[in-house]
Amino acid sequence: MVEDILVGVVRRPHGLAGEVSVQPLTDFPERFTAGAALTWRRGDEARDLRIASARPHGERVLIVFEGVSDPDAARALQDGELSVPGEAAIAPPADFFYSHEIVGWEVADAAGRRLGVAAGLEKAPASPLLTVTLDGGREALVPFVHGIVVSVDRESRRIVIDPPDGLLEL
């Protein structure tokens, strides 16, 4: 079973009608639409929510949840994480990989030598960074870009990289 996927964080109430400002943590912000079901969590608290309405607001999304109709109810959601079940993940386009999807995949160099395992993908300004737990135990950050990433094979759960000299020693 795939774990829940974090898609956003409620930052603060917005206005007087129960609307909240949400920081999307997804490459697919179109998932924030009326009727969409999300799970809200903060610490040991959790509850299921359904979006009544959503609209873009700069880098964030303003959302009204069903049953949340005033600033106090909206404030109660502040700093909570929003997630969806892993099986509700939007099918990725070709050449797109979810961080949770590649965790544990073997990472090898262009000569076929095993280097370690993928620990995830991190967003970075220039390009995503592949976190690799090297067989010696250290972690290395590898730009997840063509030229360095030679191939990614979902079926064999294997990523082949051709890192520039010294990159894995940083």
What's the total count of β strands?
Answer: 12
Secondary structural class? mainly beta
Instruction: Kindly report the spatial arrangement of strands forming the biggest sheet.
Output: 1-2-5-4-3-6
Q: Average the pLDDT over all residues and give the rounded result.
A: 91
CATH class descriptor name of the largest domain: Mainly Beta
Low-confidence stretches: none
Looking at the overall shape, the CATH architecture of the largest domain is Beta Barrel
Strand content: over 45%
Number of helices: 2
- Separation of termini? 35 Å
Largest sheet report: 6 strands, antiparallel, barrel
Gyration radius, rounded: 19 Å
- CATH fold type of the largest domain: Elongation Factor Tu (Ef-tu), domain 3
Compact overview of the structure:
This protein is mainly beta and 170 residues long. It has 2 helices and 12 strands, in the order βββββαβαββββββ. The longest helix has 5 residues, at 71-75.
Written overview of the protein:
This protein has about 170 residues and is mainly β. It has two domains: about 80 residues, Beta Barrel (Elongation Factor Tu (Ef-tu), domain 3), CATH 2.40.30; about 70 residues, Roll (SH3 type barrels). The chain is about 5% helix and about 45% strand. The chain is built from two helices and twelve strands, in the order βββββαβαββββββ. The chain has a six-stranded antiparallel barrel. The longest helix is centred in the middle third of the chain and has 5 residues. It is elongated, with a radius of gyration of 19 Å. It starts with a strand and ends in a 9-residue tail after the last strand. The mean pLDDT is about 90.
